[in-house]
Amino acid sequence: MGRTRAVIWLHAIRARRYLLSMISSSLTDTLWIVTLLLGFVLSGKTQLLAENLLGLIAWTIISNSAWMISGWVDYLGVLGLIEEHEARGTSVFLVLTGRIIPLLLSSGITSTITLIIFRVAGAEIAIHYPIHVLLTLILLVVQSAVYGLLLGALALKTGIPGYMFDIASLAFLGLALMPINEERLSQIIFVPLLGPQLATKLAGQQPLDSH
User: Fold this and answer.
1) What angle do CA 60, 65, 70 make, to 5 degrees?
2) d(C-alpha 205, C-alpha 126), whole Å
3) Spatial contact of 111 and 58, defined as CB atoms under 8 Å apart
4) Most buried in the list 87, 133, 140, 168, measured by CB within 10 Å?
5) Does the pLDDT at position 87 exceed 70?
6) d(CA 147, CA 151)
């Protein structure tokens, strides 16, 4: 338990110290999201903003897990801290799991900035099923953490950076914008990462009687 607290403290301190760098990264993700969502605004399909925004926010969690979690293997290796942690009886994977903290902060900053931009622009984005969104995002965070740890394990075994094995980020970016309904979701709900991502998007759809 003491090691877990130490890992949480480590990543919380680093998140505060490198806050400007995290904000810069979040702004980059925001530009991606805003650019993609502008297509719906310009085509007059503003009713699709909420669900596609949620789909893209879910994508940032998947994308960030690749470099914020597995990317730390390279960082620890360069500093010679992998052996140091092992010598002190602290699992490297416990240290990597703590990277969930900056992952959540980065995605939270991206979501907030994106919402502010569209609110200022006069576009109304309403989340109709917030509890469902929260539950699917929690599931996605857990699966994304496991994905990042798997990439980290591959990096440790092969010596190749984890991001070189990352195929989900690019593949799921396009899928984040695909039309989704309950019937289609039922066919892919158990696909890791993709299922929770599209379930999050579906939870952002307007009720039929509000169209």
Assistant:
1) 150
2) 9
3) no
4) 140
5) no
6) 6
CA–CA gap between residue 140 and residue 146 (Å, rounded): 10
Q: What is the DSSP string of 71-84?
A: HHHHHHHHHTHHHH
CA distance 126 to 49: 9
For residue 44, what is the DSSP state? T
Task: Please work out, in degrees rounded to the nearest 5, the angle formed at the alpha carbon of residue 29 by the alpha carbons of 117 and 111.
Answer: 50
Exposure on the CB side of residue 17, measured as CA atoms within 13 A: 6
Distance CA 5, CA 114 (A): 32
Look at residues 168, 6, 157 and name the one whose alpha carbon lies nearest to residue 73: 157
Q: How far apart are CA 147 and CA 73, in angstroms?
A: 14
Q: Tokens 């980059």 — which residue?
A: 28
Q: What is the pTM of this model?
A: 0.84
Q: Read off the pLDDT band of 139 (50, 70, 90).
A: very high
Q: What is the Cα–Cα distance from 16 to 11, expressed in whole angstroms? A: 9
Closest alpha carbon to 146 in 205, 26, 61 = 61
* Phi, psi angle pair for 67, to nearest 5°: -100, -25
Assess whether pLDDT exceeds 70 at residue 50. Answer: yes
